[in-house]
Structures
1.
Amino acid sequence: MKGTFFNKPLEWNIETVGESWQQGSSINGTLKVKNHGTETISLADAGVGLAYAEIKKIHARAEGALKLDATTTFEQKELKAGEEAELSFSFNVGPNSPVTDKKASYYLAYGRQFNENHLQSKIEPKALYTKIVGLLDTFHRFKQKEFKASKKGVEFKLLPPTSRDMANIESLNLTFSMDEDKLVMKYDFQVKKLDTSSVTTKINKESHSIEKLLAPKEYSLGKDMINQDTLLKSVEAVLSEVKLKNVY
């Protein structure tokens, strides 16, 4: 991914390795600046930073929209006329860092005081999460509608199957996060339950939450390999609990 910006007399060029990044990875790249002017320019406060921002504030060019998480500055503190400087950078994206969604995203903010220009950096969920969502689709026909950043991880909104045994489940929001090396899966169901306590029978909607904490051996068989059997057993246990308590 590349970006170029001119702010006379400086020309900025940024380039990253890759176009998008998963949670738990790192954003690597280089930032170059060239002085096209005739005078020496200070680079004392210049560099690149990883910042988080609401997308609508970026589009509106709102002041202070970019919230810096980390920065890297040029070792060279000034740039003579016609001179060029280069800065390598690497920013870690934490395992629970917010993913890019409709509302907000990470950006690479660069230039003097890290606010001359920015480049949106798309952060995607960990591959582990998308593979588990794939299991829910393949074996239980829960369809992914969307995902978004949550306070502690990534929330996937899933549409339940139309099968009779799950007719009571109206929706499922499944939130993934990491607690050190343990996988946290928080299921938030909206379920329908028959109310027979009143004179007229009616259907109520209730929230039902279940949280599972899985050790590495329970969700992984090694690099890029999920423990499908154990994960399916965990998912099926959760679904059975909801159906048993709420089926009508």
2.
Amino acid sequence: MKFKIPNSINLKEFQQWDFFSVLIMILLFLRVLVDRAGFGAVIGLALLGCFLLLLVFKLRLPKYLLFFSSIFFLLIGYAFINAAVIHGEPLYTIRGVIRYFSYFAMFILAYYSKVSFKQIFLLYTIIVLIESALAFFQFLFMGMPRPSGTFINSNHFSYFLVPYFSILLIVYKRYLPAFFVFLLSAFLGGMGGVISLLLVLFLFLSHYARKWQKVIAILIFPIFIAGAGLLMQNRVKELTDVTAISERLAENKAGGGSSLVWRIVTWKLMYDELVEKDGLYTGMGLEYASLISPYFLESSIREPHNDYLRILLEFGLFGFVLFLYGMYYGLFKLRKNAIEQSSSYYYALYVALAAIYLGMIVGNIVVLSTLWWLFLTIIAIMHKEEKQIKSKAFV
């Protein structure tokens, strides 16, 4: 299958949509549109309302999905109760419950929708084009050094591009547009996003490229690095102070310096605070690592920018182990489906998920609803279409 802008739109495909399919597409678009404005929670509540309607009128969850979702909800419920008991802020803590529950709700709604993979990717493309145009406008006419479109910041936009880059490169094999997406990520200035895209590129070449293509790739790869370096000169220069890490760690001084330096020092301070408050095993509850939380960490003025540490802070070691298992299980299933079905679609999702996990080392991705809503929608649609193919083959 090749991706191209259609000469005409087949309205019959869209006429097959039901009420929930239309709502999914609208909510996905609106969630990105209002990200910077801070109305994400409103869209999240609207999504949960749609999910409840689906639950009442037509939803029957498969048993295997009920099993895995029950573990997820028990963990979220525990972290909510833990935060409410320790900090006495149950109303604010509900914010985190809504966020994580919305991930599950979006997956289920997408699974039972009539939206196809091509249609959701078309919406993805429209969003990327709109956000790219806004980012360039902000840079050229508003003087923003790190534009972000309607996203809260440029890092969120960079990570949002990871699945799109993977699908564009692996499924549709549109190499030039994929290169422009890579340059766009570098232009946005997020090093975590660029590193994630480089992992996507590496896994693509290691799996699909022939010997002569790998030779060409070795020659072309420096062009990607040079392009990223040119667009991120200031960020690269910041790395010159990494030698000060040991000194800052000894002094417990997190402020100032490059983003990598303050991150590493902040991680240590946060971990020390967690141990000091006897929260290592049980965690300190949902939203403990959220900057706007009324019970945010005392040791920092910034969020962790490390999702593994965030999970440890909020859910403790037990939740951390379950999180790692969930990561492994997700990668394992996607890779298994990619191999068994020789599916470029599943491999693209596997690669994107691996790249997102890499970005989690230096990013706040687990709370990035704009990314997870769309990515989980794509996974759900792929799972649905796979089930439909199997049922037809069985009949």
3.
Amino acid sequence: MSRRALPVPFLVLGMGILLCALNGCGTVDKAIHRPNLVCLAPDLSRIFINDSQRGRVLIADRRFRYLSEIAMPVGSSIWGIAVSPAGELAVTNGRQTSVAFSEAEQEEGNIAEICFYTLDGRETHRLAWRGEKRLLHTPGPIRFLSDGTFVVADYELNTIVRLDRSGKVLVKFGEFGHGEGQLYYPNDLAVASDGSLLVCETYNFRLSRFTPDGTFLGHLGGKGREEGRFMFPQGLCFDAAGNLYVTELSTMRVSVFGPDGSFRQAIQPLQQGFKADCLQMFGVAWASDTGDLLVADSINECLHVIASDGRWVRAVTALE
């Protein structure tokens, strides 16, 4: 007796049953899976966490209570989230839109995009570039300047691009290298109180400072495990006093520098009661209401909460 193919409705129903069995039907997964980025709304009403394993951006209130989430397309690779002065969330994303059988097909199917959302997660605007000659190849960290324009780092091209909301390129600078003004894997950005731009160069083991128009101003750090130097720096943020916080992958610490660039202290959760074999700290954000730091630890699937004096407080593994 020949076998007949199941009608499409039955296949869809079967797939739905399978997904329900795996993920639960009608339930919300509030656990944090492989977070790599975190940021806060200027009014502190929202915390945004990139849940990289589940392909979503979690939206929580200041008490880590689940509010909603933004589901990203399959194949997304998100390495940049930021909130504008006007209160709009921006997410950078690089994704493959089709199955590729050659390098040319792969390039044609690659899309680099910057998506804009309300603080509740409703998409309002999108910039996208496609193909081999697209403006951005691997869009990474994004930061807004005071005039509403923004800068995006491309860690494959080793460039920084400044754009307005329409996608017009205002400034583009950077190239691969180890010298002054050159970049190697720009993995995060931070805007100082004077408007200058700090670029975290993971594989140059340093931070480079530029004006918003791309003029090089100087370096901070350099390769080393001693205090004041870096081993694979990852994330950056400033507090209101101008202190700078830098997460490091190899040393598993957060290094703190004063407004003048002098080293202040090293924060190491593994030496303060957090139980784990290792840490994988990427994104970091400063909360102005309490002075706490929020640090995304991907391998331990949590956010570390660190008090203003450097004390590790707790690890948040799931939203309420």
4.
Amino acid sequence: MLHPRLAAAFEQRSALKIISGLNNFDRDRVRAVVTAADQGGATFVDMAADPELVRLAKELTTLPVCVSAVEPLQLLQAVAAGADLVEIGNYDSFYAQGRVFSAEEVLALTRQTRELLPQIMLSVTVPHTLPLDQQVALAEALVAAGADVIQTEGGTSSQPHHGGTLGLIEKAAPTLAAAYEISRAVSVPVLCASGLSTVTIPLAIAAGAAGVGVGSAVNQLNSEVAMVASVRALAEAVNAAIALHR
């Protein structure tokens, strides 16, 4: 079940999700990211599945609030606090600890979450650690298990060899490849995330994504003013990409 506001954005292939981080529980940082998303023109925000953070976000914005976790019960508690949709994903912090997620584990988490939350909009990230053909197969299985949106990733697996624009494209290549392949295999919206920038957002839309998710390009900045400016630039990149495909 798609959230009404997000359904329209996905239909127009213009969804922009700003991610504060699965392990970011700093209220001031989350406040800054949510405010920047609200003022900068994002479609929705994504944060850790913490009830207090959800309540904070709901005080700051009318944008739909997505919560991320790999524990279904955490998602349930966040929805009770007012979250509009849930995400199984944002695995980057786990990769840094040496943990990877198998296709079977992600599928099991999806089924458990759907059983706990049968009516909520559910997005699931396909791990970039899987070979691309297995990512596609998992995406198809996730949709069959009840996923409403499939998210791609890949920024942490890419090792850019150049600076500037070429480096930005190299960094985004894995998630762009996944978005291209998965969007042609499933009927639900695909949200391309991880390692994206204003340079590569148009490539994500061209590859078949119905929206994009951006985290570090916003949440690693040191001032709210800079965060707002970054979100505005990202939103402009999305709008420019859509204009090219109309």
